[in-house]
Design a protein that fits this description.
The chain is of the alpha/beta class. The chain has 5 domains: 2-33 and 105-197 and 282-316, no CATH class; 42-90 and 215-270, no CATH class; 321-473, Flavodoxin domain (Rossmann fold), CATH 3.40.50; 489-594, Elongation Factor Tu (Ef-tu), domain 3 (Beta Barrel); 608-738, Rossmann fold (3-Layer(aba) Sandwich), CATH 3.40.50. Helices cover 39% and strands 20% of the residues. Strands 4-3-2-1-5-6-7-8 form an 8-stranded antiparallel sheet. It has a 6-stranded antiparallel sheet with strand order 17-16-19-14-15-18. Helix 11 (401-407) links the parallel strand 11 (381-387) and strand 12 (416-422). The longest helix has 31 residues, at 161-191. Mean pLDDT is 89; it is low at 522-528. It binds flavin mononucleotide. Flavin mononucleotide binds next to helix 10 and strand 12. This is NADPH--hemoprotein reductase.
Amino acid sequence: MLRRIHSLPGLIAAVVVSILALTGAVLAVNPALERAGSSIPPTGEVSVADLAQRVVAHFPGVERIVRKASGTIVVYYFDAEVPGAAVVDPRTGVQIAPFAPSAVTRWVTDLHRSFLMGDAGRAAAGTGAFAMLVLTVSGATMLATRLGGWRRLFGRVRGTGSQRLHAQFGRIAALALLLTALTGSYMSLTTFGIISDGMDAEPAFPSAVNGGAPMAVGDLGALRAIDVADLRELGFPYPGDLTDAYALTTAQGAGYIDPATGEMLSYLPNGFARRVYETIFMLHTGEGLWWLGLALGLAALTVPLMTATGVMIWWKRRQAMPRIKANARAATADTVILVGSEGNSTWGFAKALHDALTGAGHRVHTAPMNRLAGGYRNAERMLILTATYGDGAAPSSAKQFLARLQDVRAAQALPVAVLGFGDGRFPRFCQFAKDVEAALAAKGWPQLYPLHTIDRQSAQEFSRWSAEIGALIGVDLAIAHTPPPPRTVSLRLAERVDYGAEVQAPTAVLRFVLAQDRPAGFGRRLLGDRLPRFEAGDLVGILPPDNPVPRFYSLATSAHDGVLEICVRKHPGGLCSGFLHALKPGDRIDAFVRPNPEFRPAAGAAPVVLIGAGTGIGPLAGFIRRNGERRPMHLYFGARDPQSDFLYEAELTKWLADRRLTRLNTAFSRATDQAYVQDRIAADAEALRSLITHGAQIMVCGGRQMAQGLAKVLEEVLMPLGLDLVTLKAQGRYVEDVY
Ligand SMILES: Cc1cc2nc3c(=O)[nH]c(=O)nc-3n(C[C@H](O)[C@H](O)[C@H](O)COP(=O)(O)O)c2cc1C
C-alpha cells in the first residue's frame, strides 16, 4: 500500500514536482545574494524616523519606503513626475543602486508559483507541493520499514545502484523537503483563500487627522519608537494634502501616523493568522533567513535526481514482474498465488498456474510474496511458490514476507500450500520454502497441501504437483510448463591461466570477450558491441552443452574492465566445470548475467576485509581491481601450495605496489608452515578488531566448509567488542558468497 502511495503520485507529479524544485532552488539563492548586497545596521542603531529623514534629504519626492525580508531598503519616488526606485543605505539614505528586479527572477518566480498559467497553474503548483509532502512522508516511512525501524534510518541501504541513490538522496534531504512541501502546501491554501493569511483585517483610515502644519518626518514620535529592522513599509502622505496620513506597516501590525502630531492612529496589531503566515513565508522562501534558503535550495536539487532514480526503480520492478493477464483484485479473488523469485523463473510457473486456474473459471490474484495483504475477503485458498537464495535465504520478492505474516490477524488465515523451487546441490535445499511453511503453521494457517519441493525447475515435478492441487479443488490441472532458456550472449574465451594441477585442485582463470560474429542488426549498429552490464561479485549463468540448467559463477571483473572473468575449479565428473576446463582460446560459450547486489563493498571509505579461499578469490580480486580510490583493503587468501595454486599472484603483487591492496595475508594448507585462512584470522585478531572498530566491512567468498570454520573464528574475534556476526550481518558489514 505504502509503495503504491509513494509511486503513484511520484510518477504522476514527477514533472510538476521537478519544475517546482528546480525553480525553488534557483529562487533560494536570492535571499543570500540580496543580503550580501545590502548594508544592514545592527538592531537599535537606526529608527524608522532616522531612515525616513535621511531618505527625504536625498529623495524629496519619496512615495514609500519598503524594507524587504532580506533587509534591503527600497525607496519608491517621483522625480519631476517620473517614478523611480532605488536601493538605499539605511545609515545615510544615499542611493546604492537603482532598484531593478531581474526579469529572469520574475519569470522563474512566475514559473514556480503558477507555471506561467494563472490560477490553473497555481492550483497545479499547490497539488505538486501536496504530492511532494505525500512522497516525502511515504518515502521516509518505507525506508524506515525496510531498514528495520526509524532508529536505523541512517543504516546501510542495500539494493541496486538506483535504489541506493534514491534512498541516500532521500534521507539527506528529507527534513528540508518536508519543510518545503508543508510550507508550500500551506501557502497554496492561503492563495485560494482556504486558509487565511491574515491580510483581510486592515486598520481603518483615521476618521480625522489634526490637519495642522506637518512635522519633519524625523521628529514623528510614533516613527522614532520603531527600529528599522521592524519596518515593512512606510507610505508618505500625498504632498500638500493636509488630510492625508503616513501609512505604516511593521512586523507587529499596521496603522496610520498623523503628520502634524506624530501620533499613531487606528493601529491594528497583526492577528494570529498573519503571524503564522509571515513565519511560514520566511520558512518557505528563506527571505529573512538566507542560510535556510540556501539549505532548502540545495535539498530541492535532489528532487530531479530522486525523480530519475525513482522512475528507474519503478521501471525495473515492472520489468521484474511478468505481465499477468486477468489478474483479479486481492479483495475479489477466490485463489491467491504469491511468488518468491529472484531470477524470474518461478514467475513463469506461477503465471502458468494462474492462467490454468483462470481458464477453469477461478478468480485468481497473483502477486509477489512481499505484497502479502492483511486479508483477502473472498479467498478460499493461497498457493505460495517460492525459490531459495543465498544460503537458504529469501529471494528478493519475498524478503519482507515473514515479517508481514506476523502482522496478519489469525482470522485472516487461509488454507495454504507451499511449493519450493530450489537446487538439490545446495545444502539448504528449498530452505526458505521450509521456513515459510513452518511460519505459516506456527501462525495457525491450515494446510491445503503439504510442502512440496521442485529441484532445478523440473517441469515433470511441477506438472505432478499442479495435478494434485487441481484434484483438491476440483479442477483438471496437469500444467506443462518448461521454463524458457534465459536470453544469453555468446562469449569467446580470450585467455586462460591455469593453476593447481600439481596439488589436485585444477583451477583456471578464464577471460571471455564478446563474440563478434553475429549478424549486425539495427540494435547492434546503434549501440555497438557491448558486454551486458555487470559488477564484480555478480553471477554469470553458463549453460553447459545439452543441458538447460545453468550453472552460476561469481564474476571477477566488471563490465568496465572489458572482459568477463571467472575462476573455475574442475570437479571430478562436473558437467559445467569439465566443459569450461576443456575450452581453448577462441572457443565459445553461451552465458547470461544475474545481478548479485548484496555482495558488493559498501559505499564509502571504510576499510574492507576480504576473506577467500580457492576460487573464492575471484570476486574479491575484482573488488581490489576496481579500488581506484585506494580505500583500505585487506585480503586473506587461502590455497594449497604457493608454487601451484596461488591464484592472481602476479596481479596481487602489482595491486600491493600501487596501493589498491593495503595488505595481503596468505595461508597454504600444503606448505611447510601449513595453515588455513581462519588460522590467519585468529592470529590477526587484534588488528581485525581495530579495523572493525573503524567501521570495516567483512566480505567472505569460498566453499561452505571454509565459511563455517571462519564464522566460528570470527565470532571469537568479535566477542571482546560486544559484537557478533548476526549484528554485523544486519548492518550489512558481514556479507558472504558461499557455494
Ligand atoms: C546465488 C544462488 C543461490 C541459491 N541458493 C539456493 C539455496 O540455498 N537453496 C536452494 O535450494 N536453491 C538455491 N538456489 C537455486 C534457486 O532457488 C533456483 O534456481 C530457483 O529455481 C530460482 O528461481 P528464480 O529464478 O525464480 O529466482 C540458488 C541459486 C542461486 C543463483
